[in-house]
Amino acid sequence: MHTTRAKNNLCGLDGEGCLPFANSSFAFRCPSDCVVGGRVLNPRAVGDQVVAYRTFVVGGGRAEDGGIYGTYRADSFICPSAVHAGVFAARFGGCGVLVRTGEASGFPATRRHGIESIGFDATFPSSYTFASGVRSTACKDLRWHLFGVSVPFTTAISVVSPTPAIPFFATFVGVFFHVALASDPPYLSNPYALVSRALSRFLPAAFVAHFLWVYVLRRSHKKTPPIERTVLYLAGLWVGALTNITFDKIIPISRLTARDLGQQPGAKAALAVIVTTLILIVAGQIYYLRLCGRLPKMVGLYATLGTSLGLLAAIPGTSLRIHHYILALLLLPGCSLPTRASILYQGLLVGLFINGVARWGFASVIETPESLVGDGLYYSSIPTIGAPVVTAQNITFTLPVPPDKLTDGSAYGVTGVSVLVNDVERYQWRLDDAGDVEGGRTAAEWTYRRRPDERSYVRMAWLTRGGGTMDYTRAGVVERNDAWRAPPKGRS
């Protein structure tokens, strides 16, 4: 459960696509450690701020009537906001009732229960709070209780099984459904749909597991005593399968892109440590492969795999994407050795394969740039916002004229301008609305009725011929004293 409103203009003009604003409520349930999942990975504007890589909770000051729960802007992520409000603890998760409270003005930043919220000092058409008196103890996250059952089950099978094939397939099945249904399930509100999706992903995953066992793992598992195999392989298996609890919390890297690594705190240092560790592990595996006389064949295999990935990366209009399960499949052949380290690596990589497929499915190794952007920036051209005429009641803008051709050479047909005020779309002007006079493009004016006692944050973006928008500018600000502060460079 994330938010009741969408980013930028996705709620439509005046936010009408995200009705109702008030007088409604609904129950929700959140998993444990939902604060980590409540971070925004792409830049998101809140007034004149642009935030990324932090928990997206806006407001949350104490309620005016003395209640324990504050008021949150409607696009705040629900589960982290509930933790911030004290509805339940992040460690155990819980449930609550969200109450839409309509238009609100002023959302002060506060730090509560380990979460620092974002401040917004203007009016927003929709907000929410949480109903008091709702007991959340009955719906705590049970994933750790199930983990306490799954670990003894998989351990017992691994120790007492007469042949190594039985514990491999039994633990694969058990851990797969533990991830798909408990520890890292997809965001689905219908439990029957959750089971259906888990089964649809399990059958092809089991097919791949069979080939992994026959061609990669069988030899080393047969030569390893049951106790050692249990300790090393099973420990690695659980660490890899619970990557949302293990690696995601320890390693501050969300996506391996140049922009993300440059913007996310600690990402470059973490990547350096990871690369160094991988180099040491690969060097050790090469040494043992050479001792076993298998190094030439393995070099040939990885040369083939590398060439294949290079050809895929060269396909025009697409980007290469190495997912969890693909990374595991690429590295597992190099770990097919009867050494203790290889058994540990096998467990870790099979766990990553399970987590990737059970949570996200068999995503494609190549994806279009549009599918990778999500709600991120296009890094497109942006309009220039001129200084408005400001009075005590109104703000009048001369809207920028859509260019015949963008300076960055974009092939989009730009036909108008979208205007956001206080992070809500308030106006769309298209060229056809004003007419095309003798082949020349004409400008238009737009007047917004302001609240004289608060700031107004204004952002603009080009409208495309297909009805979408390009990147928005940063926010220009009309201060309380009628002064205009031009937007800084950058996009939002």
Characterization of this structure:
It contains 14 helices and 25 strands. It is an alpha+beta fold and 492 residues long. The strands form nine sheets. Strands 17, 18, 22, 23, 24 and 25 form a six-stranded antiparallel β-sheet that branches. α3 packs antiparallel against α4 and α4 (165-183) packs across α12. It starts with 21 loop residues before the first strand and ends in a 7-residue tail after the last strand. The model is unreliable at 63-67, 407-411 and 433-441 (pLDDT under 50).
What features would you highlight for this structure?
single chain, 3 domains, Ferric Hydroxamate Uptake Protein, Chain A, domain 1, 492 residues, 25 strands, globular, Immunoglobulin-like, alpha+beta
Structurally, how many domains make up the residues?
3
What's the story with the biggest beta sheet?
A: 6 strands, antiparallel
Q: Give the proportion of residues in helices.
A: 25-40%
The number of E-state strands comes to 25
Rounded radius of gyration (Å) = 27 Å
Strand percentage, roughly? Answer: 15-25%
Topology:
Blueprint: E1 22-30, H1 34-37, E2 39-40, E3 44-46, E4 49-51, E5 54-55, E6 72-73, H2 78-85, E7 94-101, E8 104-107, E9 111-112, E10 115-116, E11 120-124, E12 127-130, H3 143-160, H4 165-183, H5 191-222, H6 226-241, H7 247-250, H8 258-263, H9 267-291, H10 295-313, E13 319-320, H11 324-331, H12 340-360, E14 366-367, H13 369-373, E15 389-390, E16 394-399, E17 414-421, E18 424-430, H14 431-434, E19 436-437, E20 440-441, E21 444-449, E22 456-464, E23 469-472, E24 476-478, E25 484-485
Antiparallel strand pairs: 1-7, 2-5, 3-4, 6-12, 7-12, 8-11, 9-10, 13-14, 15-16, 16-21, 17-18, 17-22, 19-20, 22-23, 22-24, 24-25
Helix pairs in contact: 3-4, 3-6, 4-5, 4-6, 4-12, 5-12, 6-12, 11-12
